[in-house]
Amino acid sequence: MKYVICAYRNYGIELYDNLKKKFNFILIKSKKDLSYNKIQKINPSIIFFPDWSWKVPEEIVKNFKCVCFHEAPLPKFRGGSPLQNQIIRGKIKTKTTAFIMNEEIDAGNIILQKDLSLEGSIEDIFSRMYKNDYSLILKIIKGQYKERKQSGKPTFFKRRKPEDSELKSLNYSKEYLYNFIRMLEDPYPNAYIKLGKQKIIFKKSFYKNKKLTFQGEIL
Fold first, then answer.
1. 3 state SS of 13
2. Which of 1, 121, 148, 187 lies 20 to 30 angstroms, CA to CA, from 208?
3. Environment class of residue 16 by beta-carbon count within 10 Å: exposed (0-12), middle (13-18) or buried (19+)?
4. What parts of the chain have a pLDDT lower than 50?
């Protein structure tokens, strides 16, 4: 049995590195490498998308079993930037949802879900995502899942753009500023504010005992 994993961030590469020790996994890291002809030649049993930011060619979705991992309690928070769109709205708990991809965005049948905390840094969250994805992939390979249709009213959010990382002012609550900065830690376009000809880049934020501090740089 052959499997493909489509991933490009560090935690996705770590997933591949550990899964290939047990199974026949092939890694695809870039959009240009995910072609129908290439997938045909590999002929995988399942294609996993734990860490992917691009639209998957429709030919692939229609002809192969594609499993996507989306950090949201689908059908809520369909669309791009699910971590950021939840964190900025004050969500501290969500789900890792594994679903069978179809032609619609994030609308396929759910096969498994696992609780995911949104507290802490992006690095903390990525670490939890890795653990969730690894355990869910093992269950999927073993066939330990049941398909079910998504239920409830869907909500859809757009993928954030680099210009959305700008803070127009600091006249927000400390909790909001904390969430805004931490949700945009590396590898995402960092939060920033323009002050005259200079720009402050916010790298990390810390909020404890109602005190907000941050790490950053001035450009």
1. helix
2. 187
3. buried
4. none
